[in-house]
From TrEMBL:
SUPFAM superfamilies documented for this protein: Acyl-CoA N-acyltransferases (Nat)
InterPro entries for this protein: Acyl_CoA_acyltransferase, GNAT_dom, N-acetyltrans/Recomb-assoc
Molecular function GO terms recorded: acyltransferase activity, transferring groups other than amino-acyl groups
Name of the protein described by the UniProt record: N-acetyltransferase domain-containing protein
Residues annotated as domain N-acetyltransferase: 1-164
Pfam families (UniProt xref): Acetyltransf_10
Amino acid sequence: MECRPCRGDEMGLLRELFVAAVMELTGGEYSLEQRRAWVSSAADKVEFCARMEARQPFVAILQERIAGYADLQPDGLIDHFYVAPWAKGQRVASGMLQHIEELAQSKEMTTIHSFVSLTAEPFFLQKKFVVVEQRIATRAGVTLPHALLQKVLTLKSTRESLPR
Ligand SMILES: CC(C)(COP(=O)(O)OP(=O)(O)OC[C@H]1O[C@@H](n2cnc3c(N)ncnc32)[C@H](O)[C@@H]1OP(=O)(O)O)[C@@H](O)C(=O)NCCC(=O)NCCS
């Protein structure tokens, strides 16, 4: 699996992946009504593509296909983090998070955080995030429980590798 910046002409594919991931992977934790409300944020394709392009996401490529996408904002927020249903359980999310942590460290960020679904929370906890706060979002008049999770990054010291 490799991660690379998402091209402008691929934003529509991210929208399809987002809808598929929410509708097909989160049914254990969210009702159909909740999942429909969640994906309603992508109802307007032009608006979704413009919003995502502004976030400068990257894509994870597996078997020459987009298997997932995510982003890292300047304040350390991971806004979107989604894996395609066909790629679930193949460590795509693990690879994307590793990529995010490397990006964050290259920008000398000390923490990263995300508003995480109940579905993804066990994954993030396994990756050493901690719950900061339980929250309830409202989308299209429907409530969606989720949580703010944060991870403190250990900055790699470059001092040891400097010439004496
Ligand atoms: C949750 C999600 C990101 C995980 O992606 P994935 O590529 O399947 O995860 P990985 O294969 O990298 O899994 C890594 C580890 O986390 C565990 N894990 C992944 N999803 C899990 C879940 N829902 N519950 C418990 N453990 C989970 C895996 O079992 C694996 O454990 P292991 O290292 O002991 O084998 C993905 O299923 C998804 O997109 N879900 C729906 C959308 C969503 O909620 N996105 C997050 C929005 S904040």
